[in-house]
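Give me structure tokens for this 258-residue protein.
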Amino acid sequence: MASGLVRVICRSDQVFEAPNWHPDGWFLVNSGGRLLRADETGLTPIQTGSNERCNNDHGLLADGRIVFSAHDGTGAGMHLFDGQECHPVGLPRPSWWHGAHGSLLTYACVQGGDRVVRIATYDLETGTETVLTPDTAHHDGPDFSPCGEFIWYNSDATGHAQIWRIRRDGSHAMPVFRDENVNWFPHPSPCGRYVIYLVYPPGTEGHPADMSVQIHAMDPDGSNRRKLLDLHGGQGTMNVPCWSPDGGAFAYVRFNER
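Here you go.
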């Protein structure tokens, strides 16, 4: 963030997505339904048992465990991997993990028979789930502020996807700013200085892959918004937390144009 320097860490003909920055300096990604380690040597599979339909909703918990979402016969569900065994989180609804603060997970989910996507939290210590957003719009891509008091996310409640913020108890939901772009996947930096997000052109539906997109940054109060990068990407570029532990750099995936 200080220098604007871009460094290629891993390049492959195999499509991989959604990098999480491990404290040891490698990157957790997904490809072909599996989780992998990405570094200067290439891609190395991570064995997660029978979970062969992992998607790009995965990340790292403070205690070293990996949390990820994988599809089965009933939809996507969250799992925890301690390096040897996987354990399902056990929520009664499809859920797509996006962020954590301590024992509290935040994710996108659907309830009942509808397909409206909401933001929720689940406390691993108490087993308590709290659905934070109403069923009046599509809410997605949640990620915690470094203090844990706020959850950033995107919502189309005002017409198209914009960046929003809500308190972890579900109060004070509001857009941080509004513009004509379609904005997804906000990620606050661990140092508290920045928020980055993925910018699609006006009129884009959803968060597709293989498009000309941008990565923008702003201050946490929504000011000082500026473009950092133009790239070919979209879905898979930065769906999940991707900051270095010190908040001085972030990881992303750039794709070749097809």
